[in-house]
Amino acid sequence: MERSPALGRLVDGFGRRFHYLRLSVTEVCNFRCTYCLPDGFKKSGPLTFLTPEECGRVAGAFADLGVSKVRLTGGEPSVRRDLPEIIARTAATPGVDKVCITTNGWNLERQIGAWRDAGLTNLNVSIDSLDRAGFHRITGHDRLESVVRGLDRALELGLPTVKVNGVLLRDGVGDGFDAFAAFVRERPVAVRFIELMRTGDNAEYFADQHVPGSVLTDWLAARGWTRRDRAFDDGPAVEFIHPDHAGRIGLIAPYAPGFCDGCNRLRVTARGQLRLCLFGELGVDLKDLLEKDEPEALRARIVRALAGKPRGHRLHEANSGDTRQLAQFGG
Ligand code: SAM
Ligand code: SF4
């Protein structure tokens, strides 16, 4: 939606501008990804997450400050029955022109039509393996075929952007890359691998499964894939194209030098806390102002908090802040 001129600008102490918000709508998840929630979601405390109205207020405050892209994430956003309403409120926010979701694809087949009708523009589906048994092993669910059908349905519906997120795992190198290259031969989707990040809970798994992104880029270069020019709001992914393939393959490398210099995103958790860095400490509580609907005070608190945004994460020092797993704050 079009907006009136922004009421402020989100610029931090290092001159970085923020036009992208990741809004977590739940901590709950129905998958058990080996690197994230290997024992499944465990309830701790009451599950009181932002209401659709409060989500709309978050989107409104950030849009007033110049944010134009909002990604709904979690936990697994699709476990919320009121997700279409959250999408609709976000899409109706003046200034927001991209409403995105990151989902594990559970029930995507059934839900994508309603999400699209509510105003969803960008779909990211997480698929770490295209081997049925491998997918089952990683997620705890034998649902690969249904997830892929959901993604294909989104393509049929003509959603403006459809992407796949995969975590780069040692077990997926080689045959796994072959399978994803075949997957994008006809499909016009970008598959973006992200280097496995170490969190508070996954140190042992990280030591076993982390491989550097160069494993993928070397593999691509050896098979004739070339680097694509970057678009303005591409985010941190570097993407590769090949004349025989309709889709693209990309890499997000959070361990690469300078990764945080281009940071353009802020996060709000499902409990209404502003997180300045995915791997930071604590958050700035916005919940009281969201409950009372005080947009001016909300904007002022967000702008003030931004001054405290750190230059970068400290993953290189094996320091994940207070992030035990990414489901906790929205990856
Ligand atoms: N449940 C949804 C999903 O899986 O798409 C959204 C939340 S999930 C935390 C967001 C993304 O973070 C997923 O693509 C997931 O694969 C990725 N992720 C989770 N833990 C990760 C880790 N330790 N390192 C890298 N990526 C991770
Ligand atoms: Fe759930 Fe997503 Fe974490 Fe997998 S990565 S356990 S789907 S929150």
Explain this structure to me?
With 331 residues, the protein is an alpha/beta fold. It has a 12-stranded mixed sheet with strand order 7-8-9-6-5-4-3-2-1-10-11-12. Strand 11 (273-275) and strand 12 form a beta hairpin. The chain is 30% helix and 17% strand. It has 10 helices and 12 strands. Iron/sulfur cluster (SF4) binds at residues 29, 31, 33, 36-37, 74-76, 104, 126, 327.
List keywords for this structure.
binds S-adenosylmethionine, binds iron/sulfur cluster, 331 residues, 12-stranded mixed β-sheet, globular, TIM Barrel
Blueprint (SSEs and pairs):
Layout: E1 20-24, H1 52-64, E2 69-73, H2 83-91, E3 98-103, H3 108-118, E4 122-126, H4 132-139, H5 144-156, E5 161-168, H6 175-186, E6 190-195, H7 203-209, H8 214-222, E7 226-227, E8 238-241, E9 248-252, E10 265-268, E11 273-275, E12 284-285, H9 287-292, H10 295-306
Parallel strand pairs: 1-2, 1-10, 2-3, 3-4, 4-5, 5-6, 6-9
Antiparallel strand pairs: 7-8, 8-9, 10-11, 11-12
Helix pairs in contact: 1-2, 1-10, 2-3, 3-5
The chain binds S-adenosylmethionine and iron/sulfur cluster.
S-adenosylmethionine binds next to β3 and β5.
